[in-house]
Amino acid sequence: VLYYHSQEGLAVVGIARVTREAFPDATDPAGRFVAVELAPVRPLKQPVTLQAMKANPALADLAMIRQSRLSVSPVRDGEWAAILQMAGD
Fold it and tell me: Scanning 16, 32, 47, 87, which has the fewest C-beta atoms within 10 Å of its C-beta?
């Protein structure tokens, strides 16, 4: 999982792994949302900002850029590699 700061910084800042897959989100009284649990793996050498990702043609089809309201979105292998390269990893 690429960990993205969506409120402050607007940047991918690290890699995490899923330790618990989708389960009902206890903070949602309507019961419509699910959550996952993550564990940190490592920070990126340098954050990759949303602005930088939007400027990279290799990321033009990145789901989180095309549909910015997504909380979770897939990242293809080539996109993953491009983001890590941008981070200096």
Answer: 32
